[in-house]
Structures are given as C-alpha cells and as structure tokens.
Amino acid sequence: MPSEMGPLQPSAAAQKTITVIGKRIREMRKDKGMTLSQLAEASGLSSSMLSLVERGLASPSIGSLIVVAGALGRSMSDLLETESHESDIVVRSGDVTPVQAPGEVIRRVMKEDRANGVSIAVNEYAPHTSSNESALSHEGYEYGLLLDGSLTVEVGGEAHVIEAGDLISYSSRRPHRIYNHTDRMARTVWVNTDRR
After folding, report:
1. How many structural domains does the chain have?
2. Of 3 and 20, the one with more pLDDT
3. Looking at residue 119, which CATH number applies to its domain?
4. What is the mean pLDDT of residues 120-144?
5. Closest C-alpha among 41, 22, 82, 43 to residue 30
6. Rounded to whole angstroms, how far apart are CA atoms 80 and 119?
7. Where are the alpha helices (H) located in the chain, listed in sequence order?
8. In this structure, what is the dihedral angle of CA atoms 105, 53, 191, 158, given to the nearest 10 degrees?
9. For 89-96, which contacts have Cβ atoms below 8 Å and span 24 or more sequence positions?
10. Predicted confidence (pLDDT) per residue in 41-96, tens digit
C-alpha cells in the first residue's frame, strides 16, 4: 500500500481546505450509499487513511484525490473549493484558490469543464517534491506541458525526464507519478480528460 499522506502542520487556510475536502468526500460517499470499506476497495487506498481524510486529520496527495474522486464517479475539482464555472470565458488566476498537497505541490484548477470532460490546472512542484509517494492510476488521459524547470514523470514503470517546453501525454490508467528531481521550482499546465 502506498504512503498516502505527508507530515501535517498545515496553515489555518490549508486546514480549512483539508476539512472541506474531507467533508465533501464523506458526503459524496454517503450519497452513493458506499461504506468506507467499499470506497477503499474502489480507490485502492486504505480505510484508515480515508477515515482520517474524511475527518480532516490527513492531507491526501493530488494523486490520491484524483483516485478517490474517480472511485466516487466525480472529478477532483468536485472535492475542492473552486469558483470557476463552465460558462466562464475568462478565468483569472487571482480568482482561483490554490490547493497545497503534501510535499509542497501546489495545484490551481483553472477550468473544470464537465460538459467536455476536461480539467485544466497549473501545478507547481517545489524542489524534490512529487504528486504522490508511489505511482497511482485512474480513469482518463493526461497531457502535461512543462513551463519552467525539469520533472521526471514515471509512466508504467518507465521514467521520462521532461524539460521546459516539453509535452508528455499518457493514459491515466497506466500507473504514474510526477516528481521534481531538481533544486529548482517546476511549473506545468496539466490537462486531464475523462476519456476512457
């Protein structure tokens, strides 16, 4: 079982986000009539970890959020506080609430377009941080454009080093993990689709 959380010492704003995420996961799980054990089986995460997340006592990785949302038949942005609407033509960066996952990975969901099955986010990876501790898989397809820095993207057990200006794409069903192997910040535009 992968390690699904990092050390907890969140700021007040981060703790509020963690609490909201946990509450939404619990509500969505109950709306689907699922037990914690059923969600654990569907997501591949432990019941104890999911219980901590639901109570706001643990901060899940971005990869874990994607997997949990998929197991609930939802998108990750359904778990987050986002003000972007499908009808918005322009989304201002300053209007998007950044979410910090364990390990100092910051994710800003710029657009969640459910009608077209696309989620677009700007992700920032501090030096020596990763999307999750080990490779995870979920439904969909991903496209990542590296704006600044250098990243290693593991896909199906193979490591790919990408540099600023490079694009990587792969089926999200293949186990994958993104990590910053350098001493510099890395910034990406990441597009997730619900293509099966």
Report:
1. 2
2. 20
3. 2.60.120.10
4. 91
5. 22
6. 13
7. 12-31, 36-43, 47-54, 62-71
8. 70
9. 93/122
10. 998 889 998 999 899 888 888 788 888 988 898 877 777 755 445 567 898 888 88
Instruction: Give the CATH number of the domain where residue 17 resides.
Output: 1.10.260.40
CA distance 81 to 67: 18
Percent helix, percent strand, percent coil in the chain, to nearest 5: 25, 30, 40
C-beta separation of 186 from 161 below 8 A: no
Pairing of strands 176-179, 118-125: unpaired
Say how far apart CA 34 and CA 65 lie, in whole Å: 17
| Ranges 29-43, 72-86, 148-162, most confident | 148-162
Question: Across the chain, what does the average pLDDT equal?
Answer: 84
Q: What is the pTM of this model?
A: 0.65
* Residue 105 belongs to domain spanning: 93-193
**Residue reference for tokens 């979920």:** 138
Give domain status of residue 86, yes or no.
no
Q: Let me know if residue 88 belongs to a domain.
A: no
